[in-house]
Amino acid sequence: MDWINIIVQGILIGGLYALFAAGLSLIFGVMRLVNIAHGDLIVLAAFLGLTVTASIGIHPLTALLIVVPIMAMVGYALQYLLLNRTMGDDILPPLLVTFGLSVIIQNALLEVYSADPQKLQSGPLETASISIGSINIGVLPLLMFVVAIAVIGGLQWLFYKTAIGRAFRATSDNADIAQLMGLNKAHVFGLAMALSLSVVAIAGIFLGMRTAFDPASGPARLIFGFEAVIIGGLGNLWGTLIGGVILGVAQGIGAKINPGWQLLAGHCAFLLVLAIRPKGLFPRVEH
Amino acid sequence: MPMLNTQGLTGHYGDFQALFGLDITVGKNESVSLIGANGAGKTTTMRAIAGLLSSPAHMIQWKEQSIGNLRADQVAKLGIAMVPEGRQLFPSLSVEENLKIGAQSARSGPWKLNSVYELFPMLTEHRHKPSTSLSGGQQQMVAIGRALMSNPEIILFDEISLGLAPIVIKQIYTALPEIVRDGTSALIVEQDIKKALQYTDRFYCLSEGRVTLNGDSANADQHDIVQAYFGN
Amino acid sequence: MSVTVTRRSNASTIFLIVALLAVVLFVAAPWWAGRAELRLFGEFFLYLGLACLWNLLAGYAGLVSVGQQAYVGFGGYLLFALAIHFNVHPLLIVPVIALLGAAISVPVGLLVFRLHGAYFAIGTWVVAEVFRLSAAQITILGGGSGTSLPVSVVKSIAQSRSDRESYVYWAALFLVLLIVSISFAFLRSRQGLALTAIRDNEQAAESLGINISRTKFLVYVLTAALTAALGALIFLQKLRISPDAAFNVNDWTAFVIFIVVIGGIGTLEGPIIGTLLFFLLRESLADLGTFYLMILGVVAIVIMIRAPRGIWGFISNKFGIELFPITRRVL
User: What are C195-234's pLDDT values in tens digits?
Assistant: First the structure.
């Protein structure tokens, strides 16, 4: 029974990892950009949530209404003013610029919020649980998982059923020709980053509700998100959910065997997938 | 009154100069062809007009407005559409989505999904298929349809018939009068000089980035063109 | 008419003379410099070594790794493990560590080479994390809190502290000279030229008939070996190791990336200028703490956008100077 419990918890935490991964996968899909500062932006969103909840005394979930638009605007501005200047055939500039950004964000957070671990207080939601047989399922992890499904479903719909999604795909296919059709590449990329950071905002708030975080927590979130993307298969949004679940379950099993092995087991699962299926378990099929 | 004209248009790719002061005019309702050997600067001219290649503002005039420095998306919104060489459809979009992307610049006019399907009926049955599954000729129809969807006032056709089967070329040229009616102009790059002269009102012959000959297509002299083609 | 082709120039000849003088001066440093300066010089050389290697990897082979701390920590830990368990002079172990670094980098490379571009970068980071977490599991080396080098081992380097520090210093100086020479020789070789070519033009390199992916792999293994050797010396200087210090992404990768980007990526001169500037900035701004790091981040971003070839790229472009004669010119 213990083991079933561990697997269920692992699956649910996988939802959070999928949220880390979805934003990363999205901007890679649209503009082949890998944002090294992705994890730090997640932590930035969590700290924003902390400031919002502390200053106006609202629930972290309500704070989403403020944090999501702020992060979306940050994303648009970041892309439009900075990252668009680095886009091109050379992969070095965007990589190094987002790496620099990562260091700047970490140290700015350290300066403003200190190195103390923080947590977003979500009241009764933290301890609420439902029992199915002998398995206890926390309401918060369950909510996280449901939100992850909703976010990925929403992104999927947006990508394949709306005009903006069409613009994303067209720009991703061929930015020059998309520009000929009246799509401003700089604007489309800005929107993609805004969308990515909206997802980052959701991920950050849930991260803060679930675990303690500090200014140095970012890189590990980037790595979890990245592992989920690769395990699931590049360019496949639903794949990120499966990747997140596999990562969560592997970590749970590792922790059960030896507490020191939690993260190690997750990384090993990733390396194993890389070794046997380098394109991930569910690579995108061109249609 | 000229709709579009270039004034001493120059074009560079890095250190390489491709155009040396081109003066080209396209009037309202007029179809004009650009002919010339490979590397003469035809595609560069098209790219410069469409905004894919930035030029000093005054070098390209659109209805007496300087547009040389505008981005391609801004140029598209003015009513200048381009059918790029090699179709260049969006592979991850279906046929219909490719057409819808063409309407992105949100200009009003006669061209809608239905009218494009009327012009090229054979596209109707393929509308939900991936654009990559179509034949070259069908892809060219989608590319033309995609350009029409923006209800342009001028269409730039780069290599309109390159790599297409003769029967398809015929279909495309048959559709051309449909396309250039209602006050739409066309600037066409065509390898086949005979076709170019047959279907357009006027022509410009380019060689090594300069206009070497221009005039009415109907009165063009075969010998002069051959001379101009090779830059004499 | 006779045509002479040469790689040498006035600037490179002058540089060679100045560099030789500097080497003599630095070799003699234990006799003229104070203890603190010697330590600073040693640290300078170790960073210069890391910067040259990362530059070779990212600037020439296009392999942007953010996980080189894996090899720094690997070298450091291996030095501690071998020095504690085998009664050998620690400095004699360093070449062995380089070989073991090369050995471990082969399976690691086979894995991470399945990823491309930016994903390769994060993949290398994951490997470094695996190394760090694994090191924390080694209880005989102190687990998560690390360990100090036992006094007996420290004494085995040399009896007096000043001798000991001089030996480690000379080892660092020797190693960095070796790294610079290897980079220089490599870039002048056929494979090196091919690498420079892929940076500029993939097709041209293919037409040279050189197996690009094998050359890249070779560069990866070579830099891993030398990075491990540097790691061994870094922790021989510190005399204490812990997983967080050994596999620190900021210390061994972020700073190194800033050094190379600011100095000039893809040039041999860049890492030297970058390391000089980095130490100048550090000595004058380190009191600013977090602000110092933010400034470094901002400077790196501005340089990447405004002058992607860094300070040296800007200078050599403007004045046409090359200190390391690599490019052939017709006279």
Answer: 776 665 555 656 666 677 888 899 999 999 999 999 999 9
Q: Is A30 part of the contact surface with chain B (CB cutoff 8 Å)?
A: no
Chain B residues whose beta carbon lies within 8 Å of the beta carbon of residue A179: 51-52, 71-73, 76
Give the pLDDT of residue C331.
Answer: 56
Model ipTM?
A: 0.90
C with B: 3 or more CB pairs under 8 Å?
no
- Choice among A20-24, B202-206, B215-219 with the minimum mean pLDDT: B215-219
State the Cα–Cα distance between residues C263 and C273, nearest whole angstrom: 5
What is the pLDDT at residue C199? 61
Q: Cβ A287–B130 below 8 Å, yes or no?
A: yes
Q: Where along chain C do its domains lie?
A: 36-247, 250-320
pTM: 0.90
Per-residue pLDDT at C14: 85
CB-based contact B93 A163, cutoff 8 Å? no
Beta bridge partners of residue B206, listed in sequence order: B36, B211
Does pLDDT of A287 surpass 60? no
Query: Do B171 and B188 touch, CB atoms closer than 8 A?
Result: no
- Which chain B residue shows the shortest CA-CA distance from A161? B97
Q: H or E segment at B59?
A: none
For residue C189, give the DSSP letter.
S
Residues of A in contact with B94 (CB under 8 A): none
Number of separate domains in chain A: 1
pLDDT for the residue C234: 95
How many whole angstroms separate alpha carbon C1 and alpha carbon B129?
A: 66
Which domains does chain B carry? 2-89+151-229 (3.40.50.300)
- Tell me the chain C residues in contact with residue A222 when contact means C-beta distances shorter than 8 Å: 122
**A210-223 b/e (C-beta count within 10 Å ≥ 16 → b):** beebbbbbbbbbbb
When CB atoms are compared, the residue of A108, A268, A270 closest to C294 is A108
Structural domain of A208: 2-118+153-276
Residue A85 at interface with chain C, using a CB cutoff of 8 Å: yes
